[in-house]
Specification:
Distance between the termini of chain A: 41 Å
Largest sheet of chain A: 14 strands, antiparallel
Shape of chain A: globular
Number of helices of chain A: 3
CATH class of chain A: Mainly Beta
Helix content of chain A: 10-25%
Oligomer: homodimer
CATH superfamily of chain A: Acyl-CoA thioesterase, double hotdog domain
CATH architecture of chain A: Beta Barrel
Strand content of chain A: 35-45%
Mean pLDDT of chain A: 94
Protein backbone atom coordinates (compact mmCIF):
# COMPACT_ATOMS: atom_id res chain seq x y z
CA UNK A 1 0.00 0.00 0.00
CA UNK A 2 1.35 3.43 -0.94
CA UNK A 3 2.20 5.98 1.73
CA UNK A 4 -0.47 8.25 0.25
CA UNK A 5 -3.13 5.56 0.78
CA UNK A 6 -1.80 4.50 4.17
CA UNK A 7 -1.99 8.08 5.46
CA UNK A 8 -5.35 9.00 3.90
CA UNK A 9 -7.73 11.11 6.00
CA UNK A 10 -11.40 11.95 5.66
CA UNK A 11 -12.80 15.13 7.06
CA UNK A 12 -15.56 14.51 9.61
CA UNK A 13 -16.20 18.15 10.45
CA UNK A 14 -14.13 21.34 10.39
CA UNK A 15 -10.90 20.60 12.24
CA UNK A 16 -11.65 16.89 12.73
CA UNK A 17 -10.34 14.03 10.58
CA UNK A 18 -10.69 10.29 10.54
CA UNK A 19 -7.98 7.88 9.41
CA UNK A 20 -6.86 4.30 9.73
CA UNK A 21 -3.54 3.06 11.06
CA UNK A 22 -2.65 0.32 8.61
CA UNK A 23 -1.25 -3.02 9.60
CA UNK A 24 2.15 -3.75 8.04
CA UNK A 25 3.33 -0.25 9.01
CA UNK A 26 4.36 -1.55 12.41
CA UNK A 27 7.51 -2.48 14.26
CA UNK A 28 6.92 -5.33 16.72
CA UNK A 29 3.17 -4.68 16.61
CA UNK A 30 3.23 -0.93 17.15
CA UNK A 31 2.88 1.60 14.34
CA UNK A 32 6.10 3.29 13.26
CA UNK A 33 6.39 6.71 14.94
CA UNK A 34 7.28 8.62 11.78
CA UNK A 35 4.23 7.12 10.06
CA UNK A 36 1.97 8.35 12.90
CA UNK A 37 3.54 11.78 12.87
CA UNK A 38 3.17 12.02 9.08
CA UNK A 39 -0.56 11.23 9.34
CA UNK A 40 -0.99 13.95 11.95
CA UNK A 41 1.01 16.30 9.72
CA UNK A 42 -1.24 15.50 6.76
CA UNK A 43 -4.25 16.61 8.85
CA UNK A 44 -2.48 19.85 9.57
CA UNK A 45 -1.53 20.40 5.93
CA UNK A 46 -5.21 19.96 5.08
CA UNK A 47 -6.31 22.22 7.94
CA UNK A 48 -3.85 25.00 7.15
CA UNK A 49 -3.98 24.93 3.36
CA UNK A 50 -0.16 25.02 3.36
CA UNK A 51 1.78 22.41 1.49
CA UNK A 52 4.89 21.63 3.50
CA UNK A 53 5.46 20.67 7.16
CA UNK A 54 8.44 22.98 7.79
CA UNK A 55 8.91 22.14 11.47
CA UNK A 56 6.92 19.45 13.24
CA UNK A 57 7.24 18.17 16.81
CA UNK A 58 5.41 15.11 18.10
CA UNK A 59 5.19 13.79 21.64
CA UNK A 60 4.35 10.10 21.65
CA UNK A 61 1.93 9.28 24.44
CA UNK A 62 1.22 5.58 23.89
CA UNK A 63 2.08 2.74 21.53
CA UNK A 64 -0.45 2.67 18.68
CA UNK A 65 -1.94 -0.50 17.17
CA UNK A 66 -3.53 -0.72 13.72
CA UNK A 67 -7.12 0.52 13.55
CA UNK A 68 -9.17 3.68 13.20
CA UNK A 69 -7.99 6.98 14.68
CA UNK A 70 -9.22 10.57 14.85
CA UNK A 71 -7.08 13.69 14.45
CA UNK A 72 -8.31 17.07 15.60
CA UNK A 73 -6.53 20.22 14.48
CA UNK A 74 -6.48 23.81 15.63
CA UNK A 75 -4.89 26.53 13.54
CA UNK A 76 -3.12 28.62 16.16
CA UNK A 77 -2.01 31.32 13.74
CA UNK A 78 -2.35 31.68 9.99
CA UNK A 79 0.34 34.16 8.96
CA UNK A 80 1.68 35.26 5.61
CA UNK A 81 4.61 32.87 5.50
CA UNK A 82 3.55 30.14 7.97
CA UNK A 83 0.52 28.62 9.60
CA UNK A 84 1.08 27.17 13.07
CA UNK A 85 -1.19 24.26 13.93
CA UNK A 86 -1.52 21.98 16.93
CA UNK A 87 -3.26 18.63 16.82
CA UNK A 88 -4.06 15.51 18.78
CA UNK A 89 -4.37 11.98 17.47
CA UNK A 90 -6.84 9.92 19.49
CA UNK A 91 -8.25 6.42 19.42
CA UNK A 92 -11.96 6.20 18.59
CA UNK A 93 -12.46 5.78 22.35
CA UNK A 94 -10.93 9.23 22.84
CA UNK A 95 -7.63 8.05 24.32
CA UNK A 96 -4.81 10.43 23.39
CA UNK A 97 -2.06 8.80 21.34
CA UNK A 98 0.08 11.60 19.92
CA UNK A 99 0.27 15.34 20.49
CA UNK A 100 1.76 17.51 17.75
CA UNK A 101 2.78 21.12 17.19
CA UNK A 102 4.01 22.33 13.81
CA UNK A 103 4.44 25.23 11.44
CA UNK A 104 3.52 24.82 7.79
CA UNK A 105 4.54 26.78 4.75
CA UNK A 106 5.81 26.57 1.22
CA UNK A 107 9.27 25.12 0.53
CA UNK A 108 9.61 26.41 -3.03
CA UNK A 109 13.24 27.29 -3.58
CA UNK A 110 14.00 30.92 -2.77
CA UNK A 111 16.89 33.21 -3.46
CA UNK A 112 18.69 33.65 -0.13
CA UNK A 113 22.30 33.57 1.06
CA UNK A 114 23.62 30.01 1.47
CA UNK A 115 26.44 28.41 3.39
CA UNK A 116 26.91 24.74 4.15
CA UNK A 117 29.59 23.39 6.51
CA UNK A 118 28.92 19.71 5.91
CA UNK A 119 29.20 16.99 3.34
CA UNK A 120 26.57 14.35 2.50
CA UNK A 121 26.59 11.23 4.69
CA UNK A 122 29.37 8.77 3.89
CA UNK A 123 27.65 5.89 2.05
CA UNK A 124 28.80 3.53 -0.69
CA UNK A 125 26.64 3.47 -3.84
CA UNK A 126 23.13 2.05 -3.35
CA UNK A 127 23.98 -1.27 -4.99
CA UNK A 128 26.93 -1.81 -2.65
CA UNK A 129 24.79 -1.40 0.45
CA UNK A 130 22.78 -4.04 2.31
CA UNK A 131 19.07 -4.32 1.56
CA UNK A 132 16.66 -4.91 4.45
CA UNK A 133 13.79 -7.27 3.67
CA UNK A 134 10.67 -7.54 5.83
CA UNK A 135 9.61 -10.61 7.77
CA UNK A 136 6.62 -11.22 10.06
CA UNK A 137 8.75 -10.41 13.06
CA UNK A 138 12.28 -9.14 12.54
CA UNK A 139 13.09 -7.20 10.39
CA UNK A 140 9.57 -5.84 10.91
CA UNK A 141 6.66 -5.71 8.44
CA UNK A 142 7.19 -1.94 8.12
CA UNK A 143 10.23 -2.71 5.96
CA UNK A 144 7.85 -3.84 3.20
CA UNK A 145 6.89 -0.20 2.71
CA UNK A 146 10.37 1.16 2.19
CA UNK A 147 13.44 0.28 0.22
CA UNK A 148 16.36 0.56 2.52
CA UNK A 149 20.04 -0.04 1.94
CA UNK A 150 22.31 -0.04 4.96
CA UNK A 151 25.93 0.96 5.04
CA UNK A 152 27.81 -2.37 5.26
CA UNK A 153 29.66 -1.17 8.37
CA UNK A 154 26.34 -0.46 10.12
CA UNK A 155 24.44 -3.62 9.11
CA UNK A 156 26.07 -6.28 11.26
CA UNK A 157 23.79 -5.89 14.30
CA UNK A 158 21.26 -8.35 12.86
CA UNK A 159 23.92 -11.07 13.03
CA UNK A 160 25.12 -10.01 16.48
CA UNK A 161 28.02 -7.98 15.10
CA UNK A 162 27.30 -4.49 16.38
CA UNK A 163 29.62 -1.81 15.03
CA UNK A 164 30.01 -0.39 18.56
CA UNK A 165 29.12 3.07 17.25
CA UNK A 166 25.50 4.14 17.76
CA UNK A 167 25.04 5.21 14.15
CA UNK A 168 22.99 4.06 11.17
CA UNK A 169 23.73 5.25 7.63
CA UNK A 170 21.30 4.22 4.93
CA UNK A 171 19.64 4.93 1.62
CA UNK A 172 15.84 5.33 1.71
CA UNK A 173 13.06 5.25 -0.89
CA UNK A 174 9.42 4.16 -1.00
CA UNK A 175 9.28 0.54 -2.10
CA UNK A 176 6.12 1.28 -4.12
CA UNK A 177 8.03 3.65 -6.38
CA UNK A 178 5.74 6.44 -5.20
CA UNK A 179 7.18 9.96 -5.41
CA UNK A 180 8.65 11.21 -2.16
CA UNK A 181 7.00 14.38 -0.82
CA UNK A 182 7.66 16.41 2.29
CA UNK A 183 5.16 14.39 4.35
CA UNK A 184 6.98 11.21 3.41
CA UNK A 185 10.18 12.83 4.68
CA UNK A 186 8.75 12.62 8.19
CA UNK A 187 8.56 8.84 7.84
CA UNK A 188 12.09 8.75 6.46
CA UNK A 189 13.28 10.63 9.54
CA UNK A 190 12.11 7.92 11.92
CA UNK A 191 12.49 4.69 10.01
CA UNK A 192 13.97 1.55 11.49
CA UNK A 193 16.64 0.53 12.54
CA UNK A 194 17.49 2.70 15.57
CA UNK A 195 21.07 3.73 16.31
CA UNK A 196 20.98 1.89 19.64
CA UNK A 197 21.21 -1.41 17.74
CA UNK A 198 24.84 -0.63 17.06
CA UNK A 199 25.79 0.39 20.60
CA UNK A 200 27.64 -2.08 22.82
CA UNK A 201 25.13 -1.61 25.60
CA UNK A 202 22.60 -3.95 27.21
CA UNK A 203 19.70 -2.05 25.64
CA UNK A 204 17.38 -3.63 23.10
CA UNK A 205 14.98 -0.81 22.35
CA UNK A 206 14.62 2.88 23.20
CA UNK A 207 11.08 4.23 22.75
CA UNK A 208 10.74 7.75 21.38
CA UNK A 209 9.42 10.42 23.72
CA UNK A 210 9.66 13.29 21.24
CA UNK A 211 10.61 13.74 17.58
CA UNK A 212 11.19 17.03 15.75
CA UNK A 213 11.80 17.27 12.02
CA UNK A 214 12.89 20.36 10.11
CA UNK A 215 12.17 20.24 6.40
CA UNK A 216 14.44 22.54 4.45
CA UNK A 217 13.44 21.90 0.86
CA UNK A 218 11.42 19.44 -1.19
CA UNK A 219 13.28 16.28 -2.18
CA UNK A 220 13.63 15.30 -5.81
CA UNK A 221 10.60 12.97 -6.08
CA UNK A 222 12.50 10.02 -7.57
CA UNK A 223 15.68 10.42 -5.52
CA UNK A 224 17.12 7.99 -3.04
CA UNK A 225 17.64 9.74 0.28
CA UNK A 226 21.11 9.56 1.69
CA UNK A 227 20.71 9.48 5.46
CA UNK A 228 22.80 9.33 8.59
CA UNK A 229 21.45 8.91 12.13
CA UNK A 230 23.84 9.40 15.01
CA UNK A 231 23.67 9.27 18.79
CA UNK A 232 26.41 11.10 20.66
CA UNK A 233 24.98 11.23 24.15
CA UNK A 234 23.53 8.28 26.02
CA UNK A 235 23.23 9.74 29.52
CA UNK A 236 20.96 9.61 32.55
CA UNK A 237 18.41 7.33 30.90
CA UNK A 238 18.04 9.40 27.72
CA UNK A 239 19.53 9.45 24.26
CA UNK A 240 19.12 11.74 21.28
CA UNK A 241 19.11 10.50 17.70
CA UNK A 242 20.15 13.15 15.17
CA UNK A 243 19.22 12.61 11.54
CA UNK A 244 20.46 14.23 8.35
CA UNK A 245 18.63 13.42 5.14
CA UNK A 246 20.07 14.50 1.79
CA UNK A 247 18.87 13.77 -1.72
CA UNK A 248 20.90 12.64 -4.71
CA UNK A 249 21.41 16.25 -5.78
CA UNK A 250 23.56 16.54 -2.62
CA UNK A 251 21.17 18.95 -0.97
CA UNK A 252 20.13 18.74 2.67
CA UNK A 253 16.40 18.03 2.65
CA UNK A 254 15.73 17.52 6.34
CA UNK A 255 17.19 17.36 9.81
CA UNK A 256 15.62 15.43 12.63
CA UNK A 257 16.25 14.96 16.31
CA UNK A 258 14.47 12.68 18.69
CA UNK A 259 14.72 12.12 22.42
CA UNK A 260 14.41 8.45 23.32
CA UNK A 261 14.21 6.65 26.64
CA UNK A 262 16.45 3.95 28.01
CA UNK A 263 15.24 1.34 30.45
CA UNK A 264 15.96 2.61 33.96
CA UNK A 265 18.19 0.64 36.31
CA UNK B 1 15.99 41.24 38.79
CA UNK B 2 16.49 37.53 39.31
CA UNK B 3 15.28 35.03 36.73
CA UNK B 4 12.95 33.61 39.36
CA UNK B 5 11.29 37.01 39.85
CA UNK B 6 11.28 37.85 36.14
CA UNK B 7 9.46 34.61 35.31
CA UNK B 8 7.01 34.68 38.24
CA UNK B 9 3.42 33.57 37.55
CA UNK B 10 0.19 33.90 39.49
CA UNK B 11 -2.58 31.41 39.06
CA UNK B 12 -5.82 33.05 37.93
CA UNK B 13 -7.86 29.86 37.72
CA UNK B 14 -7.07 26.17 37.10
CA UNK B 15 -4.87 26.02 33.99
CA UNK B 16 -4.59 29.81 33.61
CA UNK B 17 -1.67 31.94 34.76
CA UNK B 18 -0.79 35.60 34.68
CA UNK B 19 2.74 36.97 34.34
CA UNK B 20 4.67 40.02 33.32
CA UNK B 21 7.29 40.25 30.60
CA UNK B 22 9.95 42.40 32.22
CA UNK B 23 11.75 45.19 30.47
CA UNK B 24 15.53 44.73 30.35
CA UNK B 25 15.01 41.10 29.23
CA UNK B 26 14.82 42.28 25.63
CA UNK B 27 16.97 42.32 22.55
CA UNK B 28 16.30 45.37 20.39
CA UNK B 29 12.96 45.94 22.16
CA UNK B 30 11.63 42.38 21.90
CA UNK B 31 11.76 39.90 24.77
CA UNK B 32 14.42 37.21 24.46
CA UNK B 33 12.88 34.00 23.09
CA UNK B 34 14.41 31.69 25.66
CA UNK B 35 13.03 33.93 28.43
CA UNK B 36 9.52 33.67 26.96
CA UNK B 37 9.79 29.93 26.55
CA UNK B 38 11.05 29.54 30.14
CA UNK B 39 8.02 31.48 31.45
CA UNK B 40 5.68 29.20 29.50
CA UNK B 41 7.61 26.21 30.81
CA UNK B 42 7.23 27.45 34.38
CA UNK B 43 3.44 27.49 33.89
CA UNK B 44 3.62 23.90 32.72
CA UNK B 45 5.82 22.83 35.61
CA UNK B 46 3.22 24.33 37.94
CA UNK B 47 0.33 22.74 36.00
CA UNK B 48 1.92 19.29 35.85
CA UNK B 49 3.45 19.11 39.30
CA UNK B 50 6.67 17.84 37.68
CA UNK B 51 9.93 19.57 38.33
CA UNK B 52 11.93 19.48 35.11
CA UNK B 53 11.11 20.48 31.51
CA UNK B 54 12.66 17.42 29.82
CA UNK B 55 11.74 18.35 26.24
CA UNK B 56 10.12 21.64 25.32
CA UNK B 57 9.25 23.00 21.87
CA UNK B 58 8.09 26.57 21.28
CA UNK B 59 6.77 28.14 18.09
CA UNK B 60 7.20 31.91 18.18
CA UNK B 61 4.20 33.63 16.67
CA UNK B 62 4.97 37.33 17.19
CA UNK B 63 7.61 39.59 18.74
CA UNK B 64 6.72 40.23 22.38
CA UNK B 65 7.11 43.57 24.16
CA UNK B 66 7.32 44.03 27.94
CA UNK B 67 3.95 43.96 29.71
CA UNK B 68 1.39 41.58 31.16
CA UNK B 69 0.73 38.20 29.55
CA UNK B 70 -1.50 35.18 30.18
CA UNK B 71 -0.48 31.53 29.85
CA UNK B 72 -3.06 28.79 29.59
CA UNK B 73 -2.05 25.18 30.06
CA UNK B 74 -3.62 21.83 29.27
CA UNK B 75 -2.22 18.61 30.68
CA UNK B 76 -2.52 16.24 27.70
CA UNK B 77 -1.35 13.19 29.58
CA UNK B 78 -0.14 12.68 33.13
CA UNK B 79 1.83 9.44 33.08
CA UNK B 80 4.06 7.73 35.57
CA UNK B 81 7.35 9.06 34.24
CA UNK B 82 6.22 12.15 32.28
CA UNK B 83 3.42 14.66 32.01
CA UNK B 84 2.85 16.11 28.55
CA UNK B 85 1.45 19.63 28.54
CA UNK B 86 0.57 22.14 25.85
CA UNK B 87 0.21 25.82 26.44
CA UNK B 88 -0.36 29.19 24.80
CA UNK B 89 1.05 32.53 25.85
CA UNK B 90 -1.29 35.39 24.96
CA UNK B 91 -1.35 39.15 25.36
CA UNK B 92 -4.06 40.46 27.70
CA UNK B 93 -6.00 41.28 24.50
CA UNK B 94 -5.98 37.56 23.65
CA UNK B 95 -3.45 37.75 20.81
CA UNK B 96 -1.42 34.56 20.61
CA UNK B 97 2.29 35.10 21.15
CA UNK B 98 3.88 31.69 21.69
CA UNK B 99 2.63 28.12 21.37
CA UNK B 100 4.40 25.41 23.35
CA UNK B 101 4.38 21.63 23.68
CA UNK B 102 6.50 19.85 26.26
CA UNK B 103 6.99 16.79 28.42
CA UNK B 104 7.92 17.19 32.07
CA UNK B 105 9.50 14.80 34.50
CA UNK B 106 12.16 14.35 37.11
CA UNK B 107 15.84 14.60 36.14
CA UNK B 108 17.25 13.03 39.29
CA UNK B 109 20.30 11.02 38.29
CA UNK B 110 19.46 7.40 37.48
CA UNK B 111 21.48 4.28 37.03
CA UNK B 112 21.43 3.54 33.29
CA UNK B 113 24.01 2.60 30.65
CA UNK B 114 26.06 5.58 29.47
CA UNK B 115 28.10 6.36 26.39
CA UNK B 116 29.32 9.78 25.23
CA UNK B 117 30.99 10.38 21.88
CA UNK B 118 31.82 14.03 22.42
CA UNK B 119 34.02 16.33 24.42
CA UNK B 120 32.98 19.57 26.12
CA UNK B 121 33.03 22.70 23.92
CA UNK B 122 36.48 24.10 23.26
CA UNK B 123 36.70 27.23 25.43
CA UNK B 124 39.60 28.92 27.22
CA UNK B 125 39.16 29.43 30.98
CA UNK B 126 36.41 31.89 31.96
CA UNK B 127 38.88 34.65 32.84
CA UNK B 128 40.53 34.42 29.41
CA UNK B 129 37.24 34.92 27.57
CA UNK B 130 35.58 38.17 26.57
CA UNK B 131 32.82 39.54 28.84
CA UNK B 132 29.75 41.07 27.22
CA UNK B 133 28.38 44.12 28.99
CA UNK B 134 24.88 45.51 28.38
CA UNK B 135 24.10 48.90 26.88
CA UNK B 136 20.80 50.61 26.09
CA UNK B 137 21.02 49.38 22.51
CA UNK B 138 23.84 47.04 21.57
CA UNK B 139 24.84 44.77 23.27
CA UNK B 140 21.22 44.61 24.43
CA UNK B 141 19.78 45.22 27.92
CA UNK B 142 19.20 41.45 28.26
CA UNK B 143 22.93 41.07 28.83
CA UNK B 144 22.47 42.70 32.26
CA UNK B 145 20.73 39.50 33.37
CA UNK B 146 23.50 37.09 32.45
CA UNK B 147 27.22 36.84 32.82
CA UNK B 148 28.62 35.81 29.51
CA UNK B 149 32.16 35.21 28.40
CA UNK B 150 32.79 34.71 24.70
CA UNK B 151 35.50 32.65 23.14
CA UNK B 152 38.04 35.26 21.89
CA UNK B 153 37.87 33.78 18.38
CA UNK B 154 34.09 34.26 18.28
CA UNK B 155 33.91 37.76 19.79
CA UNK B 156 35.18 39.93 16.94
CA UNK B 157 31.84 40.49 15.23
CA UNK B 158 31.08 43.49 17.45
CA UNK B 159 34.10 45.27 15.96
CA UNK B 160 33.28 44.17 12.42
CA UNK B 161 35.72 41.23 12.52
CA UNK B 162 33.47 38.22 11.96
CA UNK B 163 35.18 34.88 12.34
CA UNK B 164 33.54 33.66 9.12
CA UNK B 165 32.27 30.55 10.93
CA UNK B 166 28.65 30.71 12.14
CA UNK B 167 29.50 29.59 15.64
CA UNK B 168 29.41 31.09 19.12
CA UNK B 169 31.19 29.47 22.07
CA UNK B 170 30.62 30.99 25.48
CA UNK B 171 30.41 30.60 29.21
CA UNK B 172 27.04 31.41 30.80
CA UNK B 173 25.84 32.16 34.34
CA UNK B 174 23.15 34.31 35.94
CA UNK B 175 24.63 37.72 36.73
CA UNK B 176 22.59 37.85 39.95
CA UNK B 177 24.44 34.84 41.34
CA UNK B 178 21.11 32.99 41.48
CA UNK B 179 21.32 29.20 41.28
CA UNK B 180 20.79 27.79 37.82
CA UNK B 181 17.83 25.41 37.56
CA UNK B 182 16.42 23.49 34.61
CA UNK B 183 14.04 26.33 33.70
CA UNK B 184 16.96 28.71 33.51
CA UNK B 185 18.63 26.27 31.12
CA UNK B 186 15.97 27.18 28.55
CA UNK B 187 17.14 30.78 28.69
CA UNK B 188 20.76 29.69 28.40
CA UNK B 189 19.85 27.76 25.24
CA UNK B 190 18.67 30.86 23.41
CA UNK B 191 20.82 33.66 24.74
CA UNK B 192 22.41 36.28 22.55
CA UNK B 193 24.53 36.50 20.36
CA UNK B 194 23.27 34.39 17.43
CA UNK B 195 25.66 32.36 15.30
CA UNK B 196 24.72 34.37 12.20
CA UNK B 197 26.75 37.31 13.58
CA UNK B 198 29.90 35.38 12.68
CA UNK B 199 28.86 34.38 9.15
CA UNK B 200 30.22 36.30 6.17
CA UNK B 201 26.74 36.83 4.80
CA UNK B 202 24.64 39.95 4.29
CA UNK B 203 22.26 38.95 7.08
CA UNK B 204 21.88 41.00 10.25
CA UNK B 205 19.30 38.99 12.17
CA UNK B 206 17.47 35.68 11.82
CA UNK B 207 14.26 35.46 13.86
CA UNK B 208 13.46 32.13 15.50
CA UNK B 209 10.50 30.18 14.17
CA UNK B 210 10.90 27.21 16.49
CA UNK B 211 13.14 26.21 19.40
CA UNK B 212 13.40 22.78 21.03
CA UNK B 213 15.44 22.09 24.15
CA UNK B 214 16.24 18.69 25.62
CA UNK B 215 17.26 18.76 29.26
CA UNK B 216 19.31 15.73 30.20
CA UNK B 217 20.21 16.39 33.81
CA UNK B 218 20.15 19.19 36.35
CA UNK B 219 23.15 21.55 36.22
CA UNK B 220 25.31 22.10 39.25
CA UNK B 221 23.60 25.22 40.64
CA UNK B 222 26.76 27.32 40.93
CA UNK B 223 28.44 26.11 37.75
CA UNK B 224 29.35 28.14 34.72
CA UNK B 225 27.81 26.56 31.64
CA UNK B 226 30.21 25.75 28.86
CA UNK B 227 28.25 26.23 25.64
CA UNK B 228 28.71 25.96 21.89
CA UNK B 229 26.18 27.03 19.28
CA UNK B 230 26.79 26.04 15.69
CA UNK B 231 25.07 26.50 12.35
CA UNK B 232 26.00 24.04 9.62
CA UNK B 233 23.25 24.61 7.09
CA UNK B 234 22.13 28.00 5.84
CA UNK B 235 19.91 26.94 2.93
CA UNK B 236 16.71 28.00 1.19
CA UNK B 237 15.98 30.84 3.60
CA UNK B 238 16.39 28.76 6.76
CA UNK B 239 19.13 27.99 9.23
CA UNK B 240 19.37 25.75 12.26
CA UNK B 241 21.28 26.65 15.39
CA UNK B 242 22.44 23.66 17.41
CA UNK B 243 23.39 24.17 21.02
CA UNK B 244 25.31 22.03 23.49
CA UNK B 245 25.40 23.11 27.11
CA UNK B 246 27.73 21.41 29.58
CA UNK B 247 28.47 22.22 33.20
CA UNK B 248 31.83 22.43 34.94
CA UNK B 249 31.59 18.78 35.94
CA UNK B 250 31.97 18.07 32.19
CA UNK B 251 28.45 16.66 31.92
CA UNK B 252 26.09 17.43 29.05
CA UNK B 253 23.16 19.27 30.64
CA UNK B 254 21.16 20.23 27.57
CA UNK B 255 20.94 20.18 23.81
CA UNK B 256 18.99 22.70 21.82
CA UNK B 257 18.08 23.22 18.21
CA UNK B 258 16.25 26.11 16.66
CA UNK B 259 15.02 26.82 13.16
CA UNK B 260 15.51 30.47 12.21
CA UNK B 261 14.46 32.48 9.19
CA UNK B 262 16.62 34.42 6.80
CA UNK B 263 15.34 37.46 4.95
CA UNK B 264 14.04 36.30 1.57
CA UNK B 265 15.53 37.67 -1.63
Amino acid sequence: MSFRSASRLEQVEPGLWRGEIQSDWDILGNANGGYLLAIAARARVLASGRRDPVTVTGHFLRPVRPGPIMVDTEVVKAGRRFATVRSSMRSVDGERLLEVLGSYGDLDLVDAPERVDAIPPDLPPVDDCIPVEPTETFPPPFMAQVSMRLHPEDAGFAMGAKSGIPRIRRWFKWRSGEALDTLGMIVAADAFPPTIFNADLPVAWAPTLELTTHLRERPRPDSWLRCAFTTRFITNGYMEEDGELWDEADRLIAQSRQLALLPRG
